[in-house]
Design a protein that fits this description.
Helix content is about 30%, strand content about 20%. The chain contains twelve helices and 19 strands. Strands 9-8-10-15-14-13 form a six-stranded mixed beta sheet, sandwiched between helices. The N and C termini lie far apart (about 80 Å). InterPro entries: MoaB/Mog-like_dom_sf (IPR036425), MoaB/Mog_dom (IPR001453), PAPS_reduct_dom (IPR002500), Rossmann-like_a/b/a_fold (IPR014729).
Length: about 450
């Protein structure tokens, strides 16, 4: 029995509790947490950092050997865990203790209601799984209708009949962006040019320890850059991550918010290091579950090699998996809302999968194909200090054109790069730049 900390109870033995306080948490969650800690005399360690950094700081200041968690099978973070599981690679070392790992949704509510355990008031308002204010809404399966004023009413969480739909309320809300920088190409100059606001933005994530260690060379990333450029997309970020579920999940979770589409490759397959799909599931807050349709493709592809593992079905992120079928592909492409995962292991396979994706886009539209980027490269032996002021002025004069520069070697010529979607505007920009210097100062590189 847990003491409520009153004098009549005699000596108290406060349970040390860790709470990660977030500015995106529901106010009701914060209130319930603090009130419960006070009622039961809990020693509450409040951490205002992200999970990994917070645990590192906590364990450094006060060593802890084990932490009790409320993880259950079906939770995204439960992938690969048992009742006692060491922390994931790359995280501070401690033992994860999961006493309710095998509990079902119904088990949890049976315990809370039978033992009269207090819980957050949000669960009486239709919320069945609570994350942040940006990705959590009441579960529509509990909706009882709307009032005359248009306000929806919901049954309490314990009335949900199918526990597998517990996370149906974990969806991405539409939040007005802080700025338009995610959907524009810019030289650091604000512009209301219609061109810029219509440019789709992509992020690319490669998964593989071999890439990070330099053991393998990544040829797929540069190919994707070119392919996206050819259909008018701009790549805002490309990153390589470890073959680790948490690393993949963290990166996918960040990129799926600020990019129109996220492309992921590497780490897809039956090996222990193939964690990409589990990482995607965790990023979206869903569990991994067998997918019968995809399993048929996979078994057909593997043939006799799978006869010894007939009962081991392929698992994919539940509820968000979309199979993109194409007659030229032996296995469909995988799409999870605005995340597309390529199973390519080399350039030839990626070329084939990309071409099929573009063909599918003509009918079912996973990708928006817009005007391709065009460019002009001008080489010059002018010194950087001679040209820098004029390039800055050119950026202001032509905000719809990307103006950049690079050298293939320190002693080689400077190459000025002009990129945009209007060939005429690029020619005008090139002429405007050349007028500032003597004839022959620039040569065009084909």
């Amino acid at each position: 029995m847990i003491s409520d900390g009153t004098a009549e109870d005699g000596p108290t033995f406060p349970i040390r509790t860790i709470y990660f306080e977030s500015p995106s948490a529901f106010p009701e969650i914060n209130s319930f947490t603090y009130e419960t800690a006070s009622k039961y005399g809990l020693k509450l360690d409040i951490i205002r950092l992200d999970f990994k950094s917070g645990l590192e700081a906590l364990l450094k200041s006060e060593p802890i050997r084990a932490i009790f968690l409320g993880v259950r099978n079906g939770d995204p973070t439960a992938v690969g865990q048992e009742q006692f599981s060491p922390s994931s690679p790359g995280w501070p070392p401690f033992m994860r203790v999961n006493p309710i790992l095998d509990w079902s949704y119904r088990d949890v509510w049976a315990f809370l209601l039978t033992c009269k355990v207090p819980y957050c008031s949000l669960y009486d308002k239709g919320y069945t799984s609570i994350g942040s204010i940006y990705d959590t809404v009441p579960n529509t399966l509990l909706c009882t209708g709307s009032s005359a004023e248009g306000e929806e009413h919901f049954k309490p969480a314990h009335r949900l009949l199918d526990g597998r739909m517990e996370r149906a309320g974990r969806v991405k809300k539409i939040v007005p962006p802080v700025s338009s920088c995610f959907n524009t190409i810019s030289n650091g100059v604000n512009s209301e040019d219609e061109h810029q606001h219509s440019t789709p933005v992509a992020s690319i994530i490669s998964v593989g320890d071999e890439i990070l260690s330099g053991t393998a060379v990544d040829y797929l990333g540069p190919l994707l850059f070119r392919k996206l450029h050819e259909i008018g997309w701009v790549v805002s970020r490309s990153v390589a991550v470890q073959s680790d579920i948490d690393s993949v999940a963290d990166e996918v979770e960040r990129r799926k918010v600020d990019a129109d589409m996220v492309f992921v490759y590497g780490g897809v397959g039956p090996l222990h290091s193939d964690v990409t799909l589990a990482g995607v599931a965790k990023a979206f807050g869903v569990r991994m579950a067998p997918h019968d349709a995809f399993n048929e493709y996979y078994m057909s592809l593997q043939g006799e090699q799978c006869t010894s593992n007939k009962d081991e079905k392929v698992q994919l992120p539940e509820g968000i998996t979309e199979l993109l079928h194409h007659e030229k592909l032996s296995v469909p492409l995988l799409k999870f809302q605005n995340v597309i995962v390529f199973s390519s292991s080399n350039v030839t396979e990626l070329e084939e999968q990309w071409d099929c994706l573009l063909e599918l886009s003509k009918s079912i539209g996973p990708l928006k194909v817009s005007e391709p980027f065009v460019y002009k490269h001008l080489a010059t032996n002018l010194r950087d200090v001679e040209i820098s002021k004029h390039l800055s002025k050119l950026s202001l004069q032509f905000p719809d054109i990307y103006v950049g520069g690079f050298r293939k070697s320190r002693s080689g010529p400077l190459v000025v790069n002009l990129e945009g979607k209007d060939p005429m505007r690029i020619e005008l920009a090139a002429e405007a730049l050349c007028k500032n210097f003597h004839p022959g100062a620039f040569t065009t590189i084909i």
